[in-house]
């Protein structure tokens, strides 16, 4: 039975397993994989993706904020670790500590609060100390670290030193090479301060997808992998660098996500007629037009007006006219036997062709990350093989 919603998202288990196998073979031995599931698991859906990832052997997840941590907590089936890499309010610390949710701390007030709440709850707060190394966003400055470490040491009954970490400011681009090297150098200094303090964190971690692929030294104990696990290189540049280095033409990653819908109406339009709002598309010959029940309110960008492509009957079909809130029109004049209810692929494969997120996002001027995370959370998602 079709869902009430007008389009669906399918997530491929075999593609995910394939990506994990590639990543495990690429990473150094013993490096742990933390699956980054912020932004609704990059649009794949936290509730669906987390149990799938657990079945495939993942046992560490990270998110941006407490609301996402709550969703992972509610949808995990095992006892996987959950780590908040960004925002948590003091009000939410009790919940986090109670439920052994790990969280980044990057300024002194939150650290003090974590200590107070841990004392009150009677359970240790699992903190990751984020170090400012050059991103200039969040993180303790090197000169703050001795005091932080001192506090951790004297309160080890209440504070668990779960991690020391940093984040790179653009490891996906060669132009940032020098900046990343400076960050690595600064992080090394932080690690020296940590070891001089006599403390040893459970995990030392710095790498996102791009850093894990491009800077092997950054892999450390654990890598925080987002975009690659879903089958995308962070940028085309990283893909090309990988292919060149390995002297191959084969992209080692596979996309998990397919977005599909069905034709809602088909009609003939006479030469000389306009299609849709205004005058942006004029039929210069008799045309067969299919209407598709997906528009910008569903994440199909308005900038794809007269630009986008979809797949129908294994053929690449052009969007004509304006993308509206709930519908698009496409030109199916050259497709045989098109009828209402036929499958339309907006992102993903049909037959031998594929609409990749990146071609979709080049047309719509969004990067992979943005397009994926904008896919509506309320679309039904299912796992397929
Ligand atoms: C988003 C994020 C990641 C993952 O980034 P990808 O490029 O998707 O691998 C890793 N670490 C932090 C701190 C992040 O915010």
Fold and architecture overview:
This protein is α/β, with parallel strands linked by helices and 385 residues long. The protein folds into two domains: 31-246, Alanine racemase (TIM Barrel, Alpha-Beta Barrel), CATH 3.20.20.10; 257-384, Lyase, Ornithine Decarboxylase, Chain A, domain 1. 32% of the residues lie in helices and 25% in strands. It has helices spanning 13-26, 38-42, 46-55, 66-75, 90-98, 108-121, 145-154, 177-196, 209-214, 236-246, 357-364, 368-373, and strands at residues 7-12, 32-36, 60-65, 81-87, 102-105, 125-130, 159-165, 203-207, 222-225, 257-262, 265-269, 287-292, 309-312, 315-320, 328-331, 343-350, 353-355, 381-384. The strands form two sheets. Strands 1, 10, 11, 12, 13, 14, 15, 16, 17 and 18 form a ten-stranded mixed beta sheet that branches. Strands 2-3-4-5-6-7-8-9 form an eight-stranded parallel beta barrel. A hairpin with a 2-residue loop joins strand 13 (309-312) and strand 14. Helix 3 packs across helix 4 (66-75) and helix 5 crosses helix 6. The radius of gyration is 24 Å and the shape is elongated. The mean pLDDT is 96.
Can you give me a brief rundown of this structure?
It catalyses: L-alanine = D-alanine. The protein is of the alpha/beta class and 385 residues long. It has helices at residues 13-26, 38-42, 46-55, 66-75, 90-98, 108-121, 145-154, 177-196, 209-214, 236-246, 357-364, 368-373; strands at residues 7-12, 32-36, 60-65, 81-87, 102-105, 125-130, 159-165, 203-207, 222-225, 257-262, 265-269, 287-292, 309-312, 315-320, 328-331, 343-350, 353-355, 381-384.
């Amino acid at each position: 039975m079709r869902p009430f919603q007008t389009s669906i998202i399918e997530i491929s288990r075999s593609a995910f397993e394939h990506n994990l196998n590639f990543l495990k073979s690429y990473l150094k031995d013993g490096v742990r994989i933390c699956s980054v599931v912020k932004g609704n698991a990059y649009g794949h859906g936290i509730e669906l993706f987390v149990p799938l990832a657990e079945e495939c052997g993942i046992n560490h997840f990270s998110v941006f904020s407490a609301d996402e941590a709550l969703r992972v907590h509610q949808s995990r089936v095992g006892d996987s670790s959950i780590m908040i890499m960004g925002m948590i309010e003091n009000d939410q610390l009790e919940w986090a500590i109670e439920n052994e949710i790990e969280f980044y701390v990057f300024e002194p007030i939150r650290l003090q609060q974590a200590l107070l709440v841990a004392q009150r709850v009677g359970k240790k707060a699992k903190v990751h100390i984020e170090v400012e190394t050059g991103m200039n966003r969040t993180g303790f400055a090197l000169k703050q670290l001795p005091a932080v470490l001192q506090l951790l040491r004297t309160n080890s009954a209440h504070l668990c030193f779960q991690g020391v970490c940093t984040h790179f400011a653009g490891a996906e681009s060669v132009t940032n090479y020098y900046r990343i090297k400076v960050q690595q150098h600064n992080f090394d200094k932080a690690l020296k301060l940590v070891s001089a303090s006599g403390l040893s964190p459970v995990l030392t971690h710095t790498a996102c997808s791009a850093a894990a692929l491009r800077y092997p030294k950054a892999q450390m104990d654990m890598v925080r992998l987002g975009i690659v696990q879903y089958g995308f290189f962070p940028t085309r540049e990283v893909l090309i660098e990988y292919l060149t280095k390995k002297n191959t033409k084969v992209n080692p990653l596979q996309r998990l996500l397919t977005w599909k819908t069905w034709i809602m109406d088909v009609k003939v339009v006479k030469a000389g007629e306009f299609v849709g709002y205004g005058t942006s598309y004029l039929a210069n010959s008799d045309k067969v037009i299919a209407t598709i029940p997906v528009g910008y309110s569903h994440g199909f960008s308005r900038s794809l007006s007269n630009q986008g492509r979809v797949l129908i009957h294994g053929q690449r079909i052009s969007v004509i006219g304006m993308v509206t809130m709930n519908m698009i029109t496409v030109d199916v004049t050259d497709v045989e036997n098109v009828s209402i209810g036929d499958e339309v692929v907006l992102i993903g494969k049909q037959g031998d062709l594929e609409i990749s997120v990146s071609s979709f996002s080049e047309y719509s001027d969004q990067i992979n990350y943005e397009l994926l995370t904008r896919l509506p959370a309320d679309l039904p998602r299912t796992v397929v093989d």
